[in-house]
Specification:
- The strands form two sheets. The protein has a two-stranded antiparallel sheet.
- Helices cover about 35% and strands about 10% of the residues.
- It has a domain of about 60 residues.
- The chain is extended.
- Helix 1 crosses helix 2.
- The chain has about 100 residues and is an alpha+beta fold.
Length: about 100
């Protein structure tokens, strides 16, 4: 959207944000696993002071990725050995 040539952000959905416990209930797992997924960046979240909240769309996006319904993959933290070689990056001695 533009207003007088300036880009404006799309409106933010007013969906209720979920607590970590609610995400755990939705995924039928424990809060510890949810915190691990949040820490790895597998599920997007926001911090409000000490509180951690998750938008329901983030949970849906996570599930779609895990079920193979979404073609967007989360980037890996470390490129593979083949990717490092093809970019000309030095390899580590234990990678050989």
């Amino acid at each position: 959207m533009t207003t007088r040539g300036h880009m404006t952000a799309p409106p933010i959905a007013t969906a209720r944000l979920l607590t970590v416990s609610e995400v755990a209930d939705t995924l039928s797992c424990g809060r510890t696993l949810v915190y691990e997924l949040l820490g790895k960046g597998e599920i997007g979240h926001i911090k409000i002071g000490r509180l951690t909240r998750v938008h329901p769309a983030q949970v849906e996006h996570f599930l779609r990725r895990r079920m193979g319904l979404d073609c967007v993959e989360a980037p890996s933290r470390r490129p593979s050995r083949q990717q490092r070689i093809s970019r000309g990056a030095p390899t580590l001695p234990f990678d050989r």
